[in-house]
Amino acid sequence: MPQPNPLHRRITAFFSGHWVSPLVFLILWEAGSRLGLIPKSTLAAPSAVIGTLLDMLASGELPDNLWVSFLRVVVGLVIGLSIGIALALAAGLSRQGEAAIDPIMQIKRTIPTLALTPLFIVWFGIGETPKVALIAFASIFPVYLNLYSGIRGVDVRLIEGARSFGLSRAEVIWHVILPGALPSLLVGLRYSLSVSILVLVVAEQINASAGLGYLVNNARDFMRTDIIVVCLLVYAALGLGADGLVRLIERRALAWRPQLAKG
Q1: 26, 66, 112, 180 - which has most CB atoms within 10 Å?
Q2: CA 9, CA 90: separation in Å to the nearest integer?
């Protein structure tokens, strides 16, 4: 059977890359916009989106509003992660804590966070508080569930081995249980970050006067689909950045863990 020549292999490899389908999609999108098949009011062309992005960066409009959204996520996450980790430690490390906390958390877990938006508005008004509270509330459960599961999943033989060496309960928790539950905590952190970005999109629809949601609302009123697409791209970049940050922490914090995949 004849072997394909090197040039043919290189051409095949070039067009089989993962970047080909997104590029083709963008070309078809741009062509459809320029030919009038996709009205500007329905979806702006990629070239228009790029131009709007550059204009918003140059004017400072996008960085200023991105900073407001970033602060909302950070404050909400710090509150939510702190509560989630504290509850998971209390429930995971003691039977009394489990009996007191876990049933309530399991019940609350079944309530969609976004369904609480009207209630949060009644409680906290339409300022910054309900936005941050929604993000905090949503980020509690992923980190709680994963850390609680991680603590309870630590190998009992490791705990018994540590006790046989004379380690106290506090030392067993610090040197055995918490390191063993760390991978689960990082998984929960990754989920919490993703959920916080998702909830941010909805939370910023609540009478926002700044932030990415404010830009989206204004753009919707004036049918500026280019600005809406820019904000969606920023949301996506925030999600990818958050995921990359957790992966970086995971690589450094879990460097001791053996890897199945090399390279």
Answers
A1: 66
A2: 59
Q: Which of 132, 236, 141 is nearest to 189 (CA)?
A: 141
CB neighbourhood size of 85 (10 A): 18
pLDDT of residue 263: 46
Helices (H), 60-207: 61-93, 95-109, 117-124, 128-152, 156-164, 169-172, 178-203
- Alpha carbons 86 and 185: distance in angstroms, whole number: 12
What's the rounded Cα separation, in Å, for the pair 120 and 84? 19
Closest CA to 89 of 163, 188, 161, 166: 188
Residue 18 has pLDDT above 80, yes or no: no
Looking at residue 8, its pLDDT comes to 67
Tell the burial category of 42 from Cβ atoms under 10 Å away from its Cβ (0-12, 13-18, 19+): exposed
Residue 175, both tokens: 């040197």
- What Cα–Cα distance (Å) separates residue 243 from each residue in 148, 224, 256? 21, 29, 21
For residues 141 and 147, give the distance between their C-alpha atoms in angstroms, rounded to a whole number: 10
The CB-based long-range contact list for 109-113 (8 Å cut-off, 24+ gap) reads 109/141, 109/145, 113/137, 113/138, 113/195, 113/199
Closest CA to 211 of 62, 53, 57: 62
Helix (H) or strand (E) holding 47: helix 46-59
Q: Of 64, 77, 60, which is closest to residue 131 (Cα–Cα)?
A: 77
